[in-house]
From TrEMBL:
The lineage of its organism: Bacteria, Bacillati, Bacillota, Bacilli, Lactobacillales. InterPro entries: AKR, NAD(P)_OxRdtase_dom_sf, NADP_OxRdtase_dom. Residues 7-119 form the NADP-dependent oxidoreductase domain. It comes from the Bacteria. It holds the Pfam family Aldo_ket_red. This is NADP-dependent oxidoreductase domain-containing protein.
Length: 120
């Protein structure tokens, strides 16, 4: 994907030490196998050893499989932290009941005209 190639090139061209940058991305796939492959492909395309934060893109059918792939990548130091996007309390509870690694972020779109009260 072009954004990973561009991001990786920007990191290299910046001249800054990698440790001084915080790179966040989202898993664009769902399910264990697709997410596991997607993480590795994204890192390869970006030319990076790790991402600082990777989030699920949204709740889907196989949230547990998707999160398992994220947790394994976290344990393998490919991801420094992991999180979710737009999960409600019940969905967060399911993740927390099934995994050792707690999401560090639940990214929720919100603004004056779009208050996500159902997600709180």
């Amino acid at each position: 994907m072009i954004c990973f190639i561009t991001a990786g090139a920007a990191v290299k061209e910046s001249g800054l030490p990698r440790e001084e940058l915080f790179i966040t991305t989202k898993a664009m796939t769902t399910g264990y196998r697709a997410t596991k492959l997607g993480i590795d492909n994204s890192l390869t395309e970006a030319g990076l050893d790790y991402f600082d934060l990777m989030l699920t893109h949204w709740p889907m059918q196989d949230d547990l499989g998707t999160y398992r792939a994220l947790e394994e990548a976290y344990q393998a130091c490919k991801l420094r932290s992991i999180g979710v996007s737009n999960f409600n309390r019940a969905q967060l509870g399911e993740i927390m009941a099934n995994f050792q690694t707690v999401p560090v972020v639940d990214q929720i779109e919100t603004c004056v005209l779009r208050q996500q009260t159902k997600l709180h």
